Amino acid sequence: MDIKGIVAVVTGGASGLGDATARALAAGGAKVALVDYNEEGARKTAEEIGGIAVQCDVSKAESGEAAFARILDDLGAPRVLINCAGVAPAQKVLGRNGVMPLDDYRRAIEVNLIGTFNMLRLFADACQGLEPQASGERGVIINTASVAAFEGQIGQTAYASSKAGVAGLTLPAAREFAQIGIRVCTIAPGIFETPMLKGLPEAAQESLGKMVPFPSRLGRPQEYAALALHIIQNEMLNGETIRLDGAIRMAPR
Ligand SMILES: NC(=O)c1ccc[n+]([C@@H]2O[C@H](COP(=O)([O-])OP(=O)(O)OC[C@H]3O[C@@H](n4cnc5c(N)ncnc54)[C@H](O)[C@@H]3O)[C@@H](O)[C@H]2O)c1
């Protein structure tokens, strides 16, 4: 799909991987809606790239519905959805302070998995009414899992299972949407240099980078954005979860 002139929705657009992808989409000529819980951050990026900021909790049905109503009004129906909103809790099932509260597990699933599905369903509903492009394609959805979907570490039962769910919904959604010309792919990043990780001491960042076989460093958000743009442009990519990780395989801890 050609990016120029299309409407693209980027969740988690206020920060990290979403922010970088929103910038790359805008540079390619897309009109971008940055959907984020953090309205101020989304507005800042939106102003810089000529997009719009839409405050939304992706895990809530009504909040998502209001966000899409606003996007349809302000920009029109979108052809691209990038699901980057997410949280990364780390907590053992049996921690020092007792057993993990069930609500902590539920929150990770609600934001990362249900939030992804919520945006996917609303996007598909809005996109299906658009005219297909010459090849029959209407739209593209890109979700974000994690290498934790495949080798979650100790303390990642909630995070890893939320991301495994995202990888799991990719193929059935691609199969269902094939008849309306919407492709669905998921990117599973390794360790990326985003505000989440930049908060760690320099030495910790360096040692995380050294765990990556090659290149031995943290991934750059621009590298995630470059893959997202390639997926949009390469029509044969569909129904697949793609690791973007410099060959890292996470150890138990
Ligand atoms: N950075 C990494 O190393 C890494 C690795 C693997 C996977 N990921 C995944 O990539 C995605 C982006 O991560 P990042 O590193 O850019 O993180 P980040 O914290 O920089 O950005 C996440 C964004 O999501 C938003 N958000 C959180 N909960 C939300 C909600 N309920 N509704 C709307 N917005 C919400 C936050 O406000 C933030 O702007 C996440 O899904 C994360 O799990 C990141």
Automatic annotation (TrEMBL):
<comment type="similarity">
    <text>Belongs to the short-chain dehydrogenases/reductases (SDR) family.</text>
</comment>
<dbReference type="GO" id="GO:0016491">
    <property type="term" value="F:oxidoreductase activity"/>
</dbReference>
<keyword id="KW-0560">Oxidoreductase</keyword>
<protein>
    <submittedName>
        <fullName>3-hydroxy-2-methylbutyryl-CoA dehydrogenase</fullName>
    </submittedName>
</protein>
<feature type="domain" description="Ketoreductase">
    <location>
        <begin position="6"/>
        <end position="190"/>
    </location>
</feature>
<dbReference type="InterPro" id="IPR036291">
    <property type="entry name" value="NAD(P)-bd_dom_sf"/>
</dbReference>
<dbReference type="InterPro" id="IPR057326">
    <property type="entry name" value="KR_dom"/>
</dbReference>
<dbReference type="Pfam" id="PF00106">
    <property type="entry name" value="adh_short"/>
</dbReference>
<dbReference type="InterPro" id="IPR020904">
    <property type="entry name" value="Sc_DH/Rdtase_CS"/>
</dbReference>
<dbReference type="InterPro" id="IPR002347">
    <property type="entry name" value="SDR_fam"/>
</dbReference>
